[in-house]
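Lab notebook, bench 4. The sequencing result for the construct came back, and we need a structural model before the next group meeting so we can plan mutations. Quick request posted to the team channel:

Model the 3D structure of this chain.
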Amino acid sequence: MPLVRIDVNQGRSPQQLQDLSRGIHDAILAEYGIPERDYFHVLTEHPRGQIVAQDAGLGFERTPDVVMIQIFTQGGRSQAAKQSLFAAIADKLAGLGIAGTDVFIGYVENTAGDWSFGFGRAQYVTGELSVPAK
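Done. Here's the predicted structure in token form:
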């Protein structure tokens, strides 16, 4: 059950924003085999100039079309699985015209006890939800 936060500069149409979110979700579905309804995205648009995303010394320039993605999910997946996910996301976004240099992903792991899906209960701990397989 990943929670995905997506930050972009203003200027995309509602359809482009929906396609962006859906592309990321489709990559997660394909790579991690999560249920379709495990779709939890927060998409935030910012006025130009509020996202700073340099190249970390890798020698390329980002454009104002940069997409900052934060994925919060339970720990336990291999580095190979994460790398495969990163590549799948970049591939899906490339199909939407977003350059690989404009895809920035931060991946944050936690535990089953770190989630509440409502009612103030940790459903993975109470047994209301089964802990997803990795």
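The helical segments are 14-32, 79-94, 123-126.
Will bring this to the meeting.
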